[in-house]
C-alpha cells in the first residue's frame, strides 16, 4: 500500500544517514593525515621550550626571576624615595624623630612605647604607608613582690591593632570639594593612636601593681580605684593606720579634758593626706606651626585643627608641641604652691 511504501522509503533514508555519520566520524579520521606544527617542533627540539608562549600568560605562571643587582637597585630607589618624602612631605612628631631607613623600610622607635616599621606602597598611584611590623614596648619594672606584670599581646591582638592603625595611614577618600587644600597627616594620626594606646597600657600597669599590693598585707591600708573610662587611677593608702591615729587622738583629748589640761597644750598627732591620683590628660598646644615657602616664612595659629596644615609646603613638626597626651599625677599630701598641682610622670614606673 501507499503507507508501507512511504515507511520503506523513510527507513532507507535513515540507514543512509547513519552510514554517512559512521563514515564521517568512524572512518575518515583514521584515513587523513594531520598537518604537523613544524615551527613548534623545531623550537621544542632545539631550545627545549616553547618560544611563542604569550608573555602575559607566561608571567602569571612563572614570574620573571629578579637578580640580586635588580633587588639592590630597587631598594636603593625606595630608600631615596622614603628619605625625600620624610624631608619634603611628612610632618613628623618630635617623639618619632628617631627613625632609620634601610632595605626599603623606615623604622620608628619611641622609647618605652612602641616600634613600628613602615614601607611605601609604591605599586599604587597614590602612594601611602603600609605597616610591616609593630611592637609595643610598654612593660613594668620588677616590683619585687612577685612576678612582673605581663602585658604581652597575642598575635591576633597585634594584628588587630595593626589593621586599625593602618586605617590612619590609608589615603582619604576622594573629596567632593575641589577647593579643599588640607593635607593628609598619616604619621601624626598614627602617633596619636599608638601613643594613646601606650598611655592606656602604662596606666594599666600601675593599676595592676597597686592591685597586687592590695592583695598582700596592705589590704586594709590600700584602696585602688579606676574610673569607668579607665583614664583616672586613684590610690588611697594608710587608711587603717589613719583611723588608728584618729582614734588615739580622740582618746587622748578625752583624757586631757578629764585632767583639765588646756586643749592648746595637747600635741595633736599630724594626719597625713593619703590620696594619689594618676590620670591621662590632654593639653592643646599654644605654639604655632611654621610654614616655609620660597617667598617667606609664615605660621599658622590653628594647630588645634590639623587640617589647617597645607599641602605643597615644608612643615616644621616642632611647632606641633607633641605629645598632647601624657600621664600626670598629684598627691594630696603636698602643701604650699605644690598643693593639688599636677606633675607630668616620666616613663619609669
Automatic annotation (TrEMBL):
Residues 4-119 form the Mediator complex subunit MED14 N-terminal domain. Its main location: nucleus. One of its GO terms (cellular component) is mediator complex. It comes from the Eukaryota. One of its GO terms (biological process) is regulation of transcription by RNA polymerase II. GO terms for molecular function: transcription coregulator activity. It is found in: Nucleus. Pfam families: Med14. Keywords: Activator, Nucleus, Transcription, Transcription regulation. InterPro entries: Med14_N (IPR055122), Mediator_Med14 (IPR013947). Component of the Mediator complex. Component of the Mediator complex, a coactivator involved in the regulated transcription of nearly all RNA polymerase II-dependent genes. Mediator functions as a bridge to convey information from gene-specific regulatory proteins to the basal RNA polymerase II transcription machinery. Mediator is recruited to promoters by direct interactions with regulatory proteins and serves as a scaffold for the assembly of a functional preinitiation complex with RNA polymerase II and the general transcription factors. Belongs to the Mediator complex subunit 14 family. This is Mediator of RNA polymerase II transcription subunit 14. It comes from Acaulospora morrowiae.
